[in-house]
Amino acid sequence: MEALSDMKSPAFVFDVQDIRNQLNALTGDHMEQPLLWMDRYGTDQRADSLLAYLQQVGEIGFSEQAFYVKAIENDLRRLRTLDFDDDKNQASKVAARLEYHLTKACVSYCKGQRFGFVNPHRLFNNLDIEKQDSTGKYVKYRGLFDVSMDLPKEHYAAEVKNRIKHDSIVEYLQEIQPRDPFYARLKTMLSQATDPEERQRIIVNMERCRWRRRQPLTDTGKRIVVNIPAYHLYAYSPDEMLDMRVVCGAFGTKTPQLSSNIEYMQVNPQWVIPKSIVENEVARRAGDSAYFARNRYDIVDKKTNQTLDARHVSRQQLLSGNYRVAQKGGAGNSLGRIVFRFKNNFSVYLHDTSNPSAFQRASRAMSHGCVRVAEPFELARFVLDSPDEWLLDRIRIAMGLSAETEQGTEWLNAHPDQDTRNKIIGYVPVSPRVPLYIIYYTLWPDENGVLQTWPDVYGYDKVMWNQLKAFVS
User: Fold this and answer.
1) Kind of pairing, strands 145-146 and 323-327?
2) CA angle, corner 125, sides to 463 and 351, nearest 5?
3) Looking at the predicted structure, is the pLDDT value of residue 443 above 90?
4) CA distance 129 to 103
5) Dihedral pair phi/psi, residue 185, rounded to 5°
6) Rounded Cα gap, residues 410 and 264, in angstroms
7) SS3 for 447?
């Protein structure tokens, strides 16, 4: 392609003010904007560089039409050959169209490749209605996405335009390309795919790769990834890879996508029942002392910290927010024998379970939002930094497992009481903290690195596709 810088010639000079007037007519904007691509001699190689990227959008499954590729090609040709007339292709009109399409395509392309064409915070956190009043005016949505990631600032379009103006757009176009090796793998897969459903699945998962997740401040090489559609947890370190089945949230109580750090573990934790579960399941059993005893639930006054007699606490009192309902720790606790805590806005965590048979099911969307793990002790061992055997044995003993050291065996012989054994260890710090990512990919490698297709259990592929369709068709 002939470089635009080579076709500039003083033989033809554009009327810059007329270009501005034509541009205002195109945009309906009466504010006089500076020209970014055009000057009195036309445009330069920046337009060629942008066009080269736009001509490749088919490789990521997008339509050239969404980025005005043909319109830009045609008007660049007219500009080069001075193919103007006295009607819609007057010189100033061609230049104004080119200015408009180049700018609009550049901002849209840069924003999408740099941050994603779908904003997951806006999409997923306005998806499931948690509460609404009878008039429909008050609506509260359930939070489903809280991943620390780069997002475009309010004036991002102005930033792109500034790069165009100061001739740094070519470098920026190179800089913003996704570098994730998995993105490249999906891109290759897309080039070979012909089935429309398969292509749709690949395009949606490529979009997830564009979301620039921020890396943890301290990185020891360890990380834990839970992929919801696979119902699987993968723990990676420089020395080992651990994988196990998990149970995730049911459709009505979805496990949120998030990023955080495992900070500590609790062995034989008390389960403070979330307000939503108290409202939907516990409150209707108010006064039924057998129910509370059978489930080992305590009702505690938040002000006095006094445990109350379940027979004398009404449904209204349970719903008032003045009381805490908690299940005693130990065998039979809904959290199992150990819970892995990390900061998040959803009160969810990774934990053991008192119902291990659930891991044998193919579809494991069953929880209230937390992630139940099939091999909790192995995960505890993984997150600890070079733990000594006595620490590991104390965790085993508290979890009701067999001791593996002589010291542990001696301790068990000296402490036959189960309650004492449960309390041998409680709070276990995780230092350094281990990054945790709860993700949602319907194309993701299994524990052997083989790319697998996983079911769209929450329907997220569909809602993402509805937003991406504008760039595809």
Assistant:
1) unpaired
2) 100
3) yes
4) 38
5) -65, -45
6) 27
7) coil
Contact assessment for residue 98 and residue 43, using Cβ atoms and an 8 Å cutoff:
yes
Could you tell me if 378 and 245 are in contact, meaning their C-beta atoms sit under 8 angstroms apart?
Answer: no
What is the mean pLDDT of the segment spanning 48-69? 97
Tell me the residue ranges of DSSP E strands in 26-96. Answer: none
Kindly list the distances between the CA atom of residue 246 and the CA atoms of 90, 192, 228, 270, in Å, as whole numbers in the listed order.
65, 32, 9, 21
Question: CA 53, 204, 237, 366: dihedral to nearest 10 degrees?
Answer: 170
Has residue 331 got a pLDDT over 90?
no
DSSP state of 283: G
HEC string of 252-266 equals: HHCCCEEEEEEEEEE
d(CA 315, CA 182) in angstroms, rounded, equals 52
Give the distance, in angstroms, between the CA of residue 284 and the centroid of all CA atoms in the same chain: 36
Render pLDDT for 373-421 as a digit per residue (tens, 0 to 9).
999 999 999 999 999 999 999 999 999 999 999 999 999 999 999 999 9
For 10, list phi and psi in degrees, rounded to 5: -70, 0
Contact yes or no for 92/78 (Cβ under 8 A): no
CA atoms of 238 and 223, how far apart (whole Å): 10
Contact 148, 214 (CB under 8 A): yes
